[in-house]
Amino acid sequence: MAKATSSRQALAKYLLLRLVLIIPTVFILVTVVFIFMRVIGDPISSSMGGRLSAEEIDARKQAAGFNDPILTQYGRFLVGILHGDFGRTMDNRAVSDIIVSYGPATLELAFWGLLVAFAVGIPLGRLAARKYNQGADVAIRSFAVLFYAAPVFFVALLLKLVFSVWLKWLPISGRASPLVQVTLEKVPVNTHIYLINAFQTGNINIIVDVLKHAVLPGIALGLLTAGIFIRLIRINLLQTMRTDYVTAARARGVAEPKVVSQHAFRNALIPVVTVMGMEIALLLGGAILTETTFEWQGLGYWLSQYLLKRDFVAVQGIVTAIAVIIAVASFIIDAINALVDPRVRY
Q1: pTM of the predicted model, to two decimals?
Q2: Which residues are paired to 188 by β-bridges?
């Protein structure tokens, strides 16, 4: 009883510490983003230079507060974030509205990517460990290195060329067909996650349309992370297979497939859960290129659009939102990791 109480206290203390650490982490990220944006220059001069007179540019800078001291701007920026105000774009659109409207699309794409990564990475990692130093192992390791090293936009373009242009099996871009998209935006409870909206309609054709549009972006993003999962599963499964309790199971006459699945594989998954926190950042980073390639209108897509327009207020707000998402996701993964592996708590 005392041991269980001590374990719960250790878990609570660990989770509280990780939760508190989110604050300085996000603060540092927000500060770095703010400094970089100010080093580049103010967005009005960058986007309007050559199209407006110096007097007009200065008047707009004064109205937007860019002529204020840097500390005043920084304080105003922090206060705005605390109130959910990430600023306004050059076309006078609230950045918070962009985050609410398109953030779910990025999370939806990350979910599909993670699903593909698990579906591909875990079975192939297990197979590579079982076929250690055989032809299958070499082929799987080469596959993992290839897709981890290949730029995600290049993989995306190849997938579009083969499955959309040549075979014409899947849509070439977008989150849904134009008419379906209009329908999804008018559902009673608009979550901005098209799959959930599609199920609200109860129309099987709409659901299939949304799933078909998610296949290629999900594969392009998922293969990037699958390469990491393959190597992690393979290495940790090989190490686990050499432990004493696995040797004892073999000595008792337990069949090899059962040894792998019931004795070795579960422990080999623990490092994968640990690394998933870092993979969230990789998935969201890859989502920027994937969304741009497939015109999947999420935060990554709009980030690239505002970069081209040199709208640094919008860029600053979107990058800050992505940083917060990564920090919160990392905390959730840490919590799961602490529940799975008690050693993490101490």
Answers
A1: 0.84
A2: none
